[in-house]
Amino acid sequence: VGYGDTTQFTVSADAGYHIASVSGCGGTPYENAAKKKKKVKAAAISEFVYTTGQITGACTVTASFAEST
């Protein structure tokens, strides 16, 4: 990744799991909608494309997963 460029990661969950959150490197964080809205049923998102902010130094993208029920 060049200095000041952004990059994308495809985050994929294993079968039986879904993405709970993805964050880091100045990108827009992803959080499961069910955490924010009480009336919305949790969507079992198993794949998500995460775009970082402009990269100007070392950084880490972190994803967490939860078991789908």
Q: What would you say this structure looks like, in words?
A:
The protein is mostly beta strands and 69 residues long. The chain is 0% helix and 36% strand. It is built from no helices and 5 strands. It is elongated and about 40 Å long. The relative contact order is 0.41.
Task: Give the helix/strand layout.
Layout: E1 8-12, E2 17-23, E3 30-31, E4 47-51, E5 62-67
Antiparallel strand pairs: 1-4, 2-3, 2-5
**Euclidean distance between termini CA atoms:** 37 Å
Content-based structural category: mainly beta
**Helix fraction by DSSP (H/I, runs of at least 4):** under 10%
Q: If you compute it from the alpha carbons, what radius of gyration comes out, rounded to the nearest whole angstrom?
A: 13 Å
Average pLDDT over all residues:
85
Strand neighbour order, sheet with most strands: 3-2-5
Q: What's the total helix number?
A: 0
% residues in beta strands = 35-45%
- The H-and-E topology, N to C, reads as EEEEE
- Give the overall shape: elongated
Low-confidence stretches: none
Q: TL;DR of this structure?
A:
With 69 residues, the protein is mainly β.
Provide keyphrases for this structure.
69 residues; mainly beta; three-stranded antiparallel beta sheet; two-stranded antiparallel sheet; 0% helix
